[in-house]
Amino acid sequence: MRRRHRGRRRRGRGRHAGAPHAGRAPAWLNRLAKAVWLADAALAVAALLTAMLLR
């Protein structure tokens, strides 16, 4: 199973904890990463649900 808080606890810097320390990341890149993470989580949940339903 995947751990839920992946990069939160590395280097406590508020919102950007776990981000590589290269100044500020652009807002669009941050949003893109969040969207990819949310889509990945939703895909995993959907796959789990379909596997449970088709069993």
From TrEMBL:
Keywords: Membrane, Transmembrane, Transmembrane helix. The chain crosses the membrane at residues 35-54. Residues 1-23 are annotated as: Disordered. The keyword Transmembrane helix applies. Residues 1-18 have a biased composition (Basic residues). This is Uncharacterized protein. It comes from Actinomadura verrucosospora.
